[in-house]
Amino acid sequence: MSFAAPSYAFAAPFQTPAASPIRSLMAYAMRPGSISMAGGYPAQELFDVEGLTIASTQVLARLGGCLQYSDIDGQASLKNELARLSAERGVVCDPGTELAVTGGSQQALALVSRVMLQPGDHAFIESPAFPNSVQALRYTGATVHPVASGPQGIDLEQLDEMAGRIRPKMVCVVASFSNPCGATISRERRLRLLELAVKHQFLIVEDDPYGELRFAGEHVPPIAALADGQARQWAVYISTMSKTMAPSLRIGWLVAPAEVRRRCVGAKAADDMASSAWVQEIVAQYLANGRYHEHVPRIRAAYGLRCDALAQALHKHLDGRVTFIKPEGGMFFWARLNGQADATRLLPYAIEQGVVYVPGKAFYADPAQADPHAMRLSFATMNESLIAQGIERLARALDACEANAPVSVSLAA
Amino acid sequence: MSFAAPSYAFAAPFQTPAASPIRSLMAYAMRPGSISMAGGYPAQELFDVEGLTIASTQVLARLGGCLQYSDIDGQASLKNELARLSAERGVVCDPGTELAVTGGSQQALALVSRVMLQPGDHAFIESPAFPNSVQALRYTGATVHPVASGPQGIDLEQLDEMAGRIRPKMVCVVASFSNPCGATISRERRLRLLELAVKHQFLIVEDDPYGELRFAGEHVPPIAALADGQARQWAVYISTMSKTMAPSLRIGWLVAPAEVRRRCVGAKAADDMASSAWVQEIVAQYLANGRYHEHVPRIRAAYGLRCDALAQALHKHLDGRVTFIKPEGGMFFWARLNGQADATRLLPYAIEQGVVYVPGKAFYADPAQADPHAMRLSFATMNESLIAQGIERLARALDACEANAPVSVSLAA
User: Fold this and answer.
1) Measured between beta carbons, which residues in chain A are less than 8 angstroms from residue B247?
2) Considering only CB atoms, which chain A residues are within 8 Å of B272?
3) Which residue range or ranges hold the Aminotransferase class I/classII large domain (chains A, B) (predicted)?
4) Which of A52, A330, B32, B103 has the fewest CB within 10 Å, making it most exposed?
């Protein structure tokens, strides 16, 4: 006997689950022979397996002491290491009252969102942005307003005007090498953003997964590192080990004013009690071993070469047909098709040719504002030769698309 | 120059962070020579360090393949093992559509709460209950109503009456060896609870951390295992490795109707992207190695002896002065002082004597309903001799308390 599923009365943000256009591309990206510029994944072959194995083996020798329930805000060993690392980036904090370990930067953002936002509240996020960041804000029931972002990062004129009108509680940015744009906010504009935070009394939540992956240009400190006086009360800094150590650790952290951080820890108690103390000890040991500072320059150097290769290939095979600004760090190019073809129409041709990217529209909180000609190209996961080959394929795909050639691949809308 | 902290406009559930009366006792519980019956921790000396080391070493040999971003709902290896384990408990499910790996059972409860509840909604939880479970419900902004629970578990008459009136979306219970009561709901009453779920259209969320730790009496299947027909659509089962393998793994799981589970996975994407694939592989390997089924009987046997020792000591040293029902599994006794002394007034005397417990009132969602004479005594973390000694100390503390003797310890209210 079978029964029809009842109509569950889900909470409003979950009534119609959002599809994940990026995840749905993964099947194509994983096809043998396919060159994927679609993922937001770091380069797997660059993971420091040896260093992690050493740290893990050291922790195994004292495993009996790492298995019990642990402090919600994180292991003391790791909090101290992360406070040191944050201070090196200019974000000085007290690990006991201003820092907490989280399940990646995603959980850090989710926790801050949850303690600040409820239905009827407003939050701003740069647009385009990483869809899971938008979701973390939306799932609180608050209204999320996109603020246009370009090569300079978030539009501060628009932000100022909108903030005066809408009174957001939070403004979320990836200030260095943003996902998907690869854009970096300059020091002057970061200072201006801090002024706006004080003026409009909103928390700036800076997600900084890529900041250490600068391979060109001049260093710019995190926003929280530039905050003085009152502005310090409005700056939250979050970061992660996912792009420098490994995503599967699920270790990130937040640095926030004590009153905000205390509530985030309370939220985490009800969310998952703590991040794995075992894994935290491995990460702390890895940092204490000095492997982190040995390893990050390797990633930075490799990504720099890959970024150069992508820029060269775009010049060589698609000169005049795409526009882009070469990023100075991180993992992503934001490219724009100059012609009639839009990135969604091009995609099946690209897949047919064996190359995959993410159409830009996947990154707009408001689809009506999406730039149909934009695309995100990741250069992190392929070597230079594959990158060149991928862009050659993309050029062939664009030829076919512009010629309105028949195409064998059909994608769900 | 220093600035006063601004008044942040926190979301309503976070405006006044809840204190954790249990955590605040830990300082006393950790004092050298102190006997703690306060924690909800499993016995540390029983962790299968050898088995976990073996599994971890096996995973280290293939670590390079366990470091990348992974599926939100869990590693296939672990989902299959957990589906098998759930099926052994009578909860048969499709690991692809009805099961998801979570950050302990705490995250499972938080995810279900979040997809179901929003401000204006209602949820029921048995009372007394684990405070973090109450918080997971409250943090959604929904109203949480306690339903009285006793030696038989949740009061089904009261539940039926309240459900007709209040229309809750969720009802949360620990059906086997509850925390703090040690109570188990009988098979007949589980079936009746399923009828009520269909009648009132609420999800039963059964948190089952202790079900395998039965050392006396007759096995009762989980509620979801007893659900037939329409009732299956209203039964959610959640469990954890925290009490059988180790809390610091932070690995739990949920089994839910596909429509509910799908949204929980969407919520998890925005919460923490996934649980650590590395740890998931260790847990899957441990299960595949057969260590789990070898190890759980050891915990069960040890806890059975400790439970007996606690019952004997209560008879010997506090006969007639406390009332209790001996649990058939799990980790907790719920005891009630028969005389004038209440459990909060007794506590400083107990700490002075070197024994710590949690006053029962910490477990009531509505403090006005709290039984001031109740206390939770954990028997999990001490051997039989320490348990006997702890209760001897408690008896001395009760003498001093009833005699209104001066006491050196002073606790915050």
Assistant:
1) 67-70, 273
2) 102-104, 106-107, 110, 250, 272
3) 62-394
4) B32
